[in-house]
Amino acid sequence: MTISADDIKKLKKEVGIAAAQKVQSGMVVGLGTGSTTAFAIEELGRRIASGELTDIVGIPTSFQASVLGKKYGIPIRSLDDVDRVDVAIDGADEVDPAKTLIKGGGAAHTREKVVDSLASLFIVVVDESKLVDRLGSTFAVPLEVLPMAIAPVTRAVEKLGGKPDLRMGVKKDGPVITDQGNMVLDVTFEVIADAASLEQTLNNIPGVVENGLFVGVADVILVGEFVDGQPQIREIV
């Protein structure tokens, strides 16, 4: 069947709602970034407003998540204010069979990795188009890089066999700037044979703040997909 943009939006909404339903009163919740997670944040707000959830604290992974959380009535705090993260809900650009992720399409992967890695339960919300057999087959690996280090990091990545591309703004002139004031290199690798090793190697390049490989972080993947023409949520654990 042909999946329309409206169908994808419907899947994202259903997955976001399903993730938000796993949150219980009293939890500290990591609020991810992206279109699917936005539906989860909206659903959390609805549950708070109805009295179904109480004593919830949201830890945003980006300015976008902070704005949405406040919009929907979720108390927003920082990691300085809490001693734990009970659950994090976040999207992904790619998910492989080992639940290894590529994230960073929204240039928020540094904060996302901090919050998602701290969570006792990290729930990934995606539609079926994000599932891949081989990591890096549809999406480049984003690197958040200090602006003064773009040139040497580019050379170092090329020596590793990667093809780096400075991410440019869509509705602005010049490069994308992260919430931390850095730039993003999107690096394409012909093959990612060992994601864990590559994650460490990339982060060891001076000037790299963080990369978008998330290895061994995801606990549950909620996948929105169409089965016999009907939207369904599949849980991968």
From TrEMBL:
A Gene Ontology BP annotation from the UniProt entry: D-ribose metabolic process
**ATP-binding keyword on record:** no
This protein's UniProt keywords: Isomerase
**InterPro entries cross-referenced by the UniProt entry:** NagB/RpiA_transferase-like (IPR037171), Ribose5P_isomerase_typA_subgr (IPR020672), Ribose5P_isomerase_type_A (IPR004788)
Q: Which reaction does it catalyse?
A: aldehydo-D-ribose 5-phosphate = D-ribulose 5-phosphate
- Active site (catalytic residues): E112 (proton acceptor)
Name the CDD domains on file. RPI_A (cd01398)
Q: Name one GO cellular component term.
A: cytosol
UniProt binding sites for substrate? T33, G34, S35, T36, D90, G91, A92, D93, K103, G104, G105, G106, K130
Give the Enzyme Commission number.
5.3.1.6
Q: Which Gene Ontology molecular function entries are recorded, alphabetically?
A: ribose-5-phosphate isomerase activity
Query: Quick one: which pathway?
Result: Carbohydrate degradation; pentose phosphate pathway; D-ribose 5-phosphate from D-ribulose 5-phosphate (non-oxidative stage): step 1/1
Parts of the chain that traverse the membrane: none
Under the subunit heading, UniProt states: Homodimer.
Name the family.
Belongs to the ribose 5-phosphate isomerase family.
Name the job this protein performs.
Catalyzes the reversible conversion of ribose-5-phosphate to ribulose 5-phosphate.
Spell out the protein name for this chain: Ribose-5-phosphate isomerase A
Natural source organism: Pseudanabaena cinerea FACHB-1277
